[in-house]
Every structure is written in C-alpha cells, then in structure tokens.
Amino acid sequence: MTQLIRARSGEITPEMQQVALQEKLEAEKIKDLLAKGLVVIPANKNHQNLNPIGIGRGLRTKVNANLGTSPTFPDWENEIEKLKVSLACKVDAVMDLSTGGEIQTCRQKIIAHSPVPVGTVPIYEAAVKARETHGAVVEMDPDDLFAVIASQAKQGVDFVTVHCGVTQRIVEKLKNKPRVLGIVSRGGSMMAGWILHNQKENPLYEQFDRLLEICLSYDVTLSLGDGLRPGCLDDATDDAQIEELMVLGELVERSRAAGVQVMVEGPGHVPFDQIAANVVLQKRLCHDAPFYVLGPLVTDIAAGYDHIAAAIGGTAAAVAGADFLCYVTPAEHLGLPTIDDVREGIMASRVAAHAADIVKGSPYIKEKDSAMAVARRDLDWNEQMNLALNPQKAREIRRDLNPVEQEVCSMCGEFCAIEMVNKYLGELDN
After folding, report:
1. Which residue, 180, 183, 184, 155, is CA-closest to 170?
2. Structure pTM?
3. What fold is seen in the domain 43-360?
4. Residue pLDDT, tens place only, 87-120
5. Which tens digit of pLDDT belongs to each residue from 373-413?
6. Which is nearest to 65 in space by CA: 302, 347, 421, 366?
7. Residues 213, 210, 98, 105: is their CA dihedral positive or negative?
8. Predicted pLDDT at 139
9. Is pLDDT at 141 greater than 80 in this prediction?
10. Range(s) for CATH 3.20.20.540 in the chain?
C-alpha cells in the first residue's frame, strides 16, 4: 500500500499528518493533493528513521543535495561527513550518486544516518557492475538493471531517478539533428549508448510495468529523469528535450494508474527568459506532477560560481511552479564537491527556494523576514543571528568583522543609519 493508494482510499497516514504539521496545512488537504498526484511523500517502508517530507503543489519548495563516491574518491566515510553537513544545513533530501568504492555500503550508511528521504540513480550501480562483469556499460543486461533497482528499493531508498524517456526513437533522431553538447546526463548517456549498441528499445521504457511493480512493493517514488536535459544554453528547449517530456507525461499517467507516486525531473541549462515557459510546459505535459529541477543554470560560463547561476534559475523556476530544487555546488563541471562545496551549494539553493516561497504566498513563510526587519531596526544582533538561514555563518562573519563589541557594525560605525533614525525619530516621537 503506497501513500498514493492510501490517500485515494481516504486514509490519512502518519506521514501525511507529519507533512501537514510541517507545512501548516490540514492533513485532509495533504491527503487530497496526494490522491491527485499533485504531491508526493517519498517514504520507503524500509527507511526506518525517516522524517517524511511532502513535495508538490502548495508546499514549501524543497532542496536536495547530491552525495556519493567516485572512482577517484571512493571513500564512503567522507560522504557520511557530507551528509552530516547537509543535515546541519537543513537540506530536505539527499541523493547517493556513488560510482566508486563500496557502493552498497555507502548507500546503506547514508540511509541509516539520514532522517531525510534518500534518492539514487540505479543505473549507476548497474553500469559499474556491467563494466566489471562484461567490460563495458553498453553490455549491461536489463535483468541486472532491474535487480539493482529491486535491491536498492529493499534497502530503503525513497525515490529513484530512472531515465525511461530516453527512447530508441528520440536517440535515433538525435543522430540526424545533433546538439552542441549532445547528452550530458550520465544516466541518459548510458542508456543512449546501450540503445545504440544493442539496437534495442530502452528496457526501462519497454518494461515500465516491471519497474512499477518494484516501486509498488516498497512505496518507492519514481523520479522520471531528464536524460535529455540541455547541458548548455544553446540546447535549451529543443526538440529532444520536449519529446522526452511528452514521453514522461505518458509515464506519469501509467504510474498514477498503478498507485505509484511519481515526480518529473527537468533542466538543466536554460536562459532566464525561457525558465517559466519550461515549467509551465512540464506541468501541462506531465499532468501537474511535482517538478524537480537541476538549477536551472542561467549561464554556461559561471564555473566556480555555478551555485549562484543555479540559485538565480532556481528562484525563477520555483516562482513559476517548480517544487524541488537539486542543489548545484561551486565544483559543478569541475570535480567532486568537497564538504565546503556541499555547504555552499545547499545554502545557495535554500536562499533560492525561500525567495520563491515568499512570492508563492504561504503566510507563514515570510514570518522570519518580518521578524528580521524588526531585529535590524532594534539593532538586536542576537535575534538577527537566530533568524538567519545559516546562523553559524552569520555569527562567524559578525565576530570576525567586528573586533570591538558594539551596538552598530563596522560597516557604518558611528554613521549607522538605523541608529541615527532610531535616535532622532525617537526624540521627535517624544
């Protein structure tokens, strides 16, 4: 029994009640949104220490952080440290994208230590196994891929990214109408390579019912991956991206009909003026399924500052209706992120999500902003630190840049505008 099936039967589960409390909404409202597929609650029945969250219409915009090993950095213990930092930064979900070292151990440890939902991209582990067993990713046996998905579901993974929309037809068309950057999604490129090498249809699309059966058994939420997302501005909103989106819309309906929770992933690199149209198009073609975006990044030349490019795009996307932002770190396009990169990426995405939520209009969202204005007026530094999205960093900056404890800050000092206005307007009031 998935959260979706239980909602349709009229049941309000403990997970729905918890999400309702977090969002300051009635549990009945959460149940109704869930029953329509407009909200998902990724909550694998085997994830024991989970604190459920809701993703979708009318809810706070959520932020995901990517973790995971690589062949160059295979140490899973370092990824646990990144998880701890992510949780301290109040991330809403994490994904384990491991491709090196002890992959299963890393995932097991992340699930065990994570109270937030955990996602994966199962084709990564299947690809590693195929390379070890057969010498090449394109020799992957579809049965092995489904076995990996089933194993991860049993282990407690809450949502899986699967590149079902990379179909044989779309890949063939790409050969005749190439892009500047082709396919930049790792999972998407693996699937496209497999299709071209084997001259067969994508097994995740062809055997979609098999995938649904696995998800149904454990209540794993499907995250329909954007394997053809644009990897540069010149490829944004092109035929391949839109055609994949149409396929994903078909699969959203099949997932819901089967009782499986489903959300859809989106771009990528998109010019700022195309972001809103991309979100509206996704919502239209994918029947208002929750939308999960990577960024989007609004420029291709922000290497080292891609978290800022992504935050700009993330705010625009969330204002237009995107529900879930995947963080981008300063190391994007450059290497595996460090712990500091993870921290900066999460906070940039959290700023983007919060800025959008203010516009979306939930009454309780702006409470802290209003309280911050009062604290600044009163020169109440302790309260300002408490209200900041990252109190620790705010305190560190305040301490380091103000060597002498004083009511004002070292920027304006005795010429502080707030102090002056408080003093002289106060005298006039008296």
Report:
1. 183
2. 0.94
3. TIM Barrel (3.20.20)
4. 999 999 999 999 999 999 999 999 999 999 999 9
5. 999 988 899 999 999 999 999 999 988 888 777 777 767 76
6. 347
7. positive
8. 96
9. yes
10. 43-360
Token match 């959008």: residue? 356
Amino acid at 63: V
According to the model, what pLDDT value does residue 430 have?
A: 46
